[in-house]
Amino acid sequence: DVQLVESGGGSVQAGGSLRLSCAASGVTYYSQYSMGWFRQAPGKEREGVAHIDSDDRTTYADSVKGRSSISKDNAKKTLYLQMNSLKPEDTAMYYCAAKRFWSRVYEYWGQGTQVTVS
């Protein structure tokens, strides 16, 4: 079974930075997966933050564009999200997700890592 484990969350002051990681296991052809970061704040719907496809093309939500960078290390089967200039509104639980390149929806989800910006 595919498992995704996030890490790197924490509490930071506004203007600070964090790098989230998402380690995948149970994946045979990691490079063929599209990966994404999502977040959900209390009382709000889950939103997509950043995505990277199997060709390493990236997309970002407007709310984080210019402040965040998504990347993945296929050899380590690890996804990253570098977040800079953090704002209080970035406070949320952050989840990583994975889907095989032909899938229309994300198939696998991690348990999340909390980011709190004050």
Give a written overview of the molecule.
With 118 residues, this protein is mainly β. The protein is built from no helices and 11 strands. The strands form 2 sheets. Strands 2, 4, 5, 6, 9, 10 and 11 form a 7-stranded mixed beta sheet that branches. A hairpin with a 4-residue loop joins strand 7 (68-73) and strand 8. The termini are far apart.
What fraction of the residues are assigned to beta strands by DSSP? over 45%
Overall helicity: under 10%
Round the mean pLDDT to the nearest integer and report it.
96
Encode the helix/strand succession as letters: EEEEEEEEEEE
Q: Could you tell me the radius of gyration in angstroms? A: 13 Å
Total beta strand runs: 11
Distance between the termini: 37 Å
Largest sheet: 7 strands, mixed
Helix and strand composition category? mainly beta
What is the overall silhouette? Answer: globular
Low-confidence sequence ranges = none
Q: Counting H and I runs of at least 4 residues, what is the number of helices?
A: 0
